[in-house]
Amino acid sequence: VKEDVVPLLVKVLQKSIASTPRDEAARALGNIASGNVQNAVIVANSGAIKPLITMMEGNEPTSRFESTRAIACLALSTAAVQRDLVVAGALPPLIRAGHSVQERNKRDMAIAKEVSIALSNLVANAENRDAVLKGGGLDVFTALVHWSNREIHTRASCGLRQLLDPAVVNSL
After folding, report:
1. Which of 13, 157, 162, 166 has the fewest CB atoms within 10 Å, measured from its CB?
2. Diameter of the chain by CA atoms?
């Protein structure tokens, strides 16, 4: 990825008043981070996490989806990026999103998929399990594991197994 592209996209996230440019910037950052750990680290280190979290907490459905997807892409990378997501406050809006989705709503289905990806990858890192558990992640995984969508069900099942690792439960 060109070094100057990511900071420009982050600037759009931070400065744009209109939602469409922010949505497009979040989508581009998610695409850059997706499947490439080095790129995900660049995106995370560029200051993208906080504005993406802010977008997740907004009222615009497209903004919530694109920012949740970008956070999910970042959660697939390194333990350091995962820690940065938790420290920056990504868990509360992810968990709220997981509580608010309805299986019959197509847009909610897409958000639920990204929430299940993000949370299951965050709990793969043992350092984050306690925060996810205390933040309400158990309820989200328990709800999503019953969804009919195979990918959401599988991710939630995986996250639930990792969250309920006996070593984690015994430490409570």
Report:
1. 166
2. 48
Q: Residue 59 and residue 8: Cα distance in Å, rounded?
A: 24
pLDDT digits (tens, 9 = 90+) for 86-144: 999 999 999 999 999 988 888 889 999 999 999 999 998 889 999 999 999 999 999 99
pTM (2 d.p.): 0.91
Give the residue with greater pLDDT, 105 vs 30. Answer: 30
CA–CA separation, 83 and 53 (whole Å):
14
Show the CA angle centred on residue 73, arms to residues 50 and 137, nearest 5°.
Answer: 75
Q: What is the residue type of 157? A: S
Secondary structure percentages of the chain, helix, strand, coil, to 5: 80, 0, 20
